[in-house]
Structures are given as structure tokens and as C-alpha cells.
Design goal:
The chain is of the alpha+beta class. 33% of the residues lie in helices and 30% in strands. Strand 7 and strand 8 form a beta hairpin.
């Protein structure tokens, strides 16, 4: 999972009741592209381009989820040895820093959604060290730079 945040003040809305929704990359691309490009600027070792993310979503190899704070793009990964399918958090972007992380806020939603879809595990990888404490305290397990959580 690649996470980025745009700096700004915290929203005072009632977004807590809103759940992430599956969205069309075509309809949302103008603002999602800005988030993807920000992630790529902040993490220059990533080798894909914003257009690769767009194409993956367009071809249903990845899925765009939107919520008031930003977006998450997920994929279905397959463990090459066990064959187990994994709901993978590929990219996460939020509009403003200082908010409760989307991981903490929306993992119950994504865990339940993944379980309903037949996944046995959710997974995220990140090099954003600020997230480690939050993820570990929320039931994730660190495996190198990969975080997994059984559902």
C-alpha cells in the first residue's frame, strides 16, 4: 500500500457515517490522478506511472474506492505458494493530514467486504513509517514491510 496525504486542516463534517464506495476511474480520474501523482512524487522508487493505475482500474485489475477523505485502490493478489487470494491495499491517498488514518477508520469495512468476496486475508505494504504504530495497534502483523490481518 502506498499512502500519501495532502497537507491541510481537518474537516469537521459527518463523514464518519459514510462508507467507501466502488467508483468509476473514468468519472473520478481528474482528482484521483492528482493523488496518484502526489504519491509518485513522494515515493520516487515506485516504477509505475499514473497511467498504469488508470489502466489497471479500467481493465478491472484494480478497483477504486472513494470516501470523503480520499481514495483507496485495491487489487486481488494471489499467494504464489498457497494459492490463497489476498485483498491488497495498493494505493491510499487522503486529502488532509491529521485525520484519523483511513486504515483505522475503514479497515472494518474493507475486512468485511473482502470476507464477503471470499478473501481470507487483507494485506498492505508501506514504507510510510508513521503508519506502523497505528497498524500494529489495530491488529495488523508486521512481516518485513508487509502488514497482514486475518479476517
Amino acid at each position: 500500500m502506498v499512502v500519501s496525504h495532502e497537507r491541510g486542516e481537518q474537516d469537521a463534517g459527518t463523514a464518519a457515517a459514510v462508507k467507501p464506495t466502488l467508483a468509476s476511474i473514468r468519472k473520478e480520474w481528474d482528482w484521483v490522478k492528482q493523488g496518484v501523482e502526489e504519491i509518485l512524487r513522494e515515493q520516487p522508487k515506485l516504477t509505475y506511472r499514473a497511467e498504469d493505475v488508470y489502466a489497471a482500474c479500467l481493465n478491472e485489475e484494480a478497483f477504486l474506492w472513494v470516501f470523503p477523505e480520499g481514495f483507496l485502490i485495491s487489487t486481488a493478489e494471489k499467494d504464489e505458494y498457497s494459492g490463497e487470494h489476498i485483498f491488497f491495499f495498493w494505493l491510499v491517498w487522503v486529502k488532509k493530514r491529521g485525520q484519523k488514518t483511513v486504515i483505522e477508520k475503514y479497515v472494518p469495512f474493507f475486512a468485511e467486504t473482502a470476507k464477503e468476496m471470499g478473501f481470507k486475508r487483507i494485506e498492505a505494504r508501506t514504507n510510510v513509517s508513521d503508519l506502523e504504530r497505528s497498524m500494529l495497534s489495530d491488529g495488523w502483523e508486521r512481516q518485513s514491510a508487509t502488514y497482514t490481518r486475518e479476517i
